[in-house]
Structures are given as structure tokens and as C-alpha cells.
Amino acid sequence: MNPRIAVVSLWAEDEPAVAHFSLDMIGLNLLPHHPVDRIHFDLDGIVLAIIPGRSVLPPDPEPRFPVVAIAVPELDNAVETLRLHGVDLPRGMETNSTGSWVIFRDPAGNLVELVEFNQ
């Protein structure tokens, strides 16, 4: 068996705000009956857990690397949803030979990336 990531955690002082953001803005699938009393999402077999506490912000005021990158099937639609809700996309959409991506901060301040890989 090859090792793979099982759980990724984001810290949030306001867990419900991050959960609603993840549901409404990103379209993540909530795991409604997870055995631990925390908010969990399914990322195609990897669990994203929202953990109570203060997010750890990078010291760089313009960081390039997110805490988590989430692959989405239609980045244009995701970007439109984020913009309609006033989410700041500091670098706009970026592209290279492997795909396109945007970075932004969730309500807790975690730097998140959405990416669409080229087929």
C-alpha cells in the first residue's frame, strides 16, 4: 500500500463560518455523521477537518503557498461564486502548463487554493 494523506486540518476560531464558507463558496461535501464532534468534509476520500482554535498565518504578507489546495472540476464557476460573494483573490487566476488556480483566505484567515488541472 502506498502512503497517502488521510486528514488535513484547518484551524478556525469561528468553525461555523468556515464550514458555511466551505459549503457555500467552495461546494465541499459535509460528512454529517463523523464520529468526532467536529466539522469534517470529504475531499474524494481525504478528510478536511475544521479544528477549533486560531489559524496560523504565514509571516509573509503575500504568501504564495496555501495551507490546502483543493482540486475543483470547473474553476471558472468557483471563481465567479467567490467574486460574487466579495472574496478577495489577491493574485487573480494564475495558469501554467499543468492547470489554473486561485488563492484566497477563508473566514479564519487560512490561505486556501482552488485548482483545476489540465486534462
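Second entry:
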Amino acid sequence: MRHEVIMPALGMTQDSGLLLAWKKQVGEEVVVGDILMEVETDKSTMEVEAQHSGFLTILYAEEGTEVPVGEVIAIISATTEGTDETSPGSHSETTMESDSSITPQDVVTETDEEVPPKTPTKAQNNTPGKILASPKFRRLARERGLDFGLLVQSGYSQPYHVSDLKTLEAMSPAQTTGLEIYARAHINGSAFKEFEELLKVETGLPITVAMAAFAAGAYHQILDSNGITVRVDTLPNSTITYMVPNFVKLREIIPSEMGINPDLIVTDLTLTKLVNIKSGPTLVPTFSISNFGQRLEVLLVSPQSSMDQHQLVNCIEEFINRLELPLMHLL
């Protein structure tokens, strides 16, 4: 009996996963429940368990490869016969039983703190242009203004974990930590205010949904991200977090669990007399919308580690274009 191992869907909006590492090698015996591979999604790193016992005989996907959900990436066989010691190749036409039963309950979320500090070595199998790192490492590095490309340039092995932050901090110039860049614009907000009333009457949706969609759309245009988590703070006392997939209708955007770290923040100050509010360093790109007489003032503040000045200017322009012509950007 031979069984197909597929790239599992570990999230509702996931269409692919990054294969970080194989935990079993070709020819090794596999038992149900063994950790078979480590996969990175948009928000977390998961360890996927084997659903069948046998021997790992073929690997179709290399470490560091982005693989569509449902694609066959390995074969588990009852014996070692047919073991392929070569690099991943084309799929066999033989009919096999698929591991399609893998669900999010069959994976283990990586805690990251439990990963022991490693002695960095020269990496031989890193995919050019793609840095393999746990989501928590990426988030903390961004928050501290650290460029984890320095680890790659110095030849430290991937994937990177929280335990590698001390090494990164030691080689990062102190003066780059916490630097911010910003851009401010004044726009005609009449169309957006009319759109807010239309949205409420026709759909019952709050304007925070549109703010999240417009911010995510602007960010996606500049940095080409797959699904963006946006937290909308409507002062004085409302906070909602949305997961915004690419090219989604407003009705399909629903609030996410509180406590999820956002990729973007939108601060709505239009119900107050405040123009801006800030406490501590900016950890992720943050849009602020406030009243400026009969117009709106839009401010975008970003850590320099998240985007450069050119990207910042383009991002705020994409955002204010959506505020000025909201209906056109929803067609």
C-alpha cells in the first residue's frame, strides 16, 4: 500500500504553504503521529504529523518551496521498495491513497521558545531570495527594527527562530533600531462620508470594514502580501481586528480573534477632535484618519524596517485614492 502525503490546508484562507523542513528523510520508517514536516503559513509555523505508518520512499517537494494546498509532496509506502534517493521529480501516475484527512487538529503549533539556540553554520540549501524563519521571529525582528537579511549575508543557517535574535541584535547597527518614517496628506473626504452612509443603509456594515479593506488593498499593491490582518481602532473606545484576504467582497470580511498581531493598524479619529495620537514606537505601518476642517487628514507612520520611503509614499497614495473614490475601488 502506498499513500500520498499532500500539502494540508491549515487555515480557511490558505491556498499554499511554505515547506520549511522535512523531519523524516527518504528511507526512514514513519509511524502514525510522527512529525513529518514543518510548514509555514501566513500566521504561524506548524509541525504536521504522519497519518500513515510505513517508509518515506519519495519526496516531491524541496525544503524552502511554496506548495499549493492539496498538491502531493511525498509518498509513504509499506516497504522501502521504490525508494527514490534522488531529488524531487515528477509525480507518479500510480493510483494511491491520499492523506487528505489532515486537518488543523493534526498539527502542532511551534512554540518557538523551545527551539534551542543553534550554532550557525553555512547553509547549503536555502532558496535564493526566500528567507526561512518562524512568524514569531519575523514579528519580533520587525518590532525591534532588525534586518534579518544580515543573518543570510553572514551565512547563518535557516530557518531562523527566536533563539537567533540575540545573534541578529549583536550584528545589527544600534542606530537603525526603532527608526520611523511618515507621510501626511489632506484630502476631500465628502465622497467617503457619503459612502459611509450608503454602506450603513444598504448593507448594515460598519465603516471599519471598508477602512480595513482599503488599508489592506493599499498595502497589497505595494508589498504583494497574501491576506492581511488589520486592526481598526475607532477612538475613543472601539477596536476590531479583521483578516482581509486578497480580492474579497466587503460582506466576506469578518472580525478575527482579539489578540492576533496585526500587519496594519488604522486609527479612526474622526469622532474626536484629535489630529494624531501616539505612544511608544510604531511596530507596524499605521494609518490615522482625522478631521481637518471640511477635509480629512491622513497620516501613515511606518517602521523603516517595514517599508522604504518610496513604498511609504505609494502606500499612502493608494490608501487616499480609495478614500476619495471608494465605490470605484470596490467594483
